[in-house]
């Protein structure tokens, strides 16, 4: 057992309970919302509390929220929500980019115009060990991304900074990957070069793939497979997502699987009505209401579910 930092303080890892490993509360462009959005703070907070309470009532105890710089993270809002719900919210630090580094870091770092040690690593370590800004909330895990663009200089710089912060703190890592380009293999190579324990790495969005050779190779190297986009049937249908998990469990990989939706209470990337029509099951309820029954019906045991929902997330922090 070990300590896990949450939006409302520290808990023992044994208190995480059933945990969805990749769920956002808000995903938004803050600057866009401030200039062009129709933002009602009280209404959005109340809606988030309601949705998280509903998830708690469905038997989920905690979510890992990988909303970092680049996705609109604003910790005071999450703190307010966390004090009003019994569901535990575990926050991340890191930077989300598919390509370039934001200008706040573009010119500053090793060998750059302002030649100093990597400020990203310093920032991530501070968030993990001292707290995010002046909120008093400490991040509990790290997050970065790699997409179709591949290992661009900016993506690599963030990934290596995340790896370095992991080595200094032991904090687990979640990486947004594109499984269709097999970028999980790139992630494992880069993080291994930085000295990362691959057993502390969740390779996000593996659930978008049915390529069992690729998925098992990642798991055999020690990483957890993020089967974490249930409800995004537009990217891979429900039946194929479920069947892939069932087959992985049958092959003995239950201890390398984490479950989630990659859903949110609010996301401004899409028109809300169009999103609801395109992916009506992309919400926090889907795993509890649809996925778990389907897995049980196809032979996944309650013990396997306990492994995927409780043991594996908890192990990330221990």
UniProtKB/TrEMBL annotation:
Keywords: Hydrolase, Metal-binding. Coiled coil: none annotated. InterPro entries: AryldialkylPase_Zn-BS, Metal_Hydrolase, Phosphotriesterase. The modification N6-carboxylysine is found at residue 143. It comes from Nocardioides salarius. PANTHER family: PHOSPHOTRIESTERASE-RELATED, PHOSPHOTRIESTERASE-RELATED PROTEIN. This is Phosphotriesterase-related protein. Pfam families: PTE. Transmembrane segments: none annotated. Belongs to the metallo-dependent hydrolases superfamily. Phosphotriesterase family.
């Amino acid at each position: 057992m070990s300590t896990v930092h949450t939006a409302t303080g520290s808990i023992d890892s044994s208190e995480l309970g059933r945990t969805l490993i990749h769920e956002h509360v808000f995903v938004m462009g803050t600057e866009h919302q401030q200039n062009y959005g129709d933002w009602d703070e009280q209404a959005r907070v109340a809606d988030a509390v309601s949705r998280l309470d509903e998830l708690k009532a469905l038997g989920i105890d905690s979510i890992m929220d990988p909303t970092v710089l680049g996705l609109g993270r604003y910790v005071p809002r999450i703190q307010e929500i966390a004090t009003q719900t019994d569901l535990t919210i575990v926050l991340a630090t890191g930077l989300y980019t598919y390509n370039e580094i934001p200008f706040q870091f573009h010119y500053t770092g090793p060998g750059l115009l302002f030649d100093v040690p990597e400020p990203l690593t310093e920032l991530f370590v501070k968030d993990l060990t001292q707290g995010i800004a002046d909120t008093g909330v400490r991040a509990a895990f790290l997050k970065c991304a790699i997409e179709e663009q591949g290992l661009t200089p900016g993506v690599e710089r963030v990934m290596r900074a995340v790896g370095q912060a992991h080595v200094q703190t032991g904090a687990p890592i979640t990486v947004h990957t594109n499984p269709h380009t097999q970028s999980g293999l790139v992630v494992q190579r880069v993080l291994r070069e930085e000295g990362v324990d691959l057993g502390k790495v969740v390779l996000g969005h593996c659930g978008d793939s049915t390529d069992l050779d690729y998925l098992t190779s990642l798991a055999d190297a020690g990483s957890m497979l993020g089967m974490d986009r249930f409800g995004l049937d537009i990217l891979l249908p429900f039946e194929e997502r479920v069947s892939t998990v069932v087959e992985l469990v049958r092959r003995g990989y239950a201890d390398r699987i984490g479950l989630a939706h990659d859903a949110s209470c609010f996301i401004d990337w899409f028109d809300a009505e169009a999103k609801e029509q395109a992916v009506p099951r992309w919400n926090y309820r889907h795993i509890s209401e649809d996925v778990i029954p389907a897995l049980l019906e196809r032979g996944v045991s309650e013990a396997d579910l306990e492994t995927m929902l409780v043991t594996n997330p908890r192990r990330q922090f221990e």
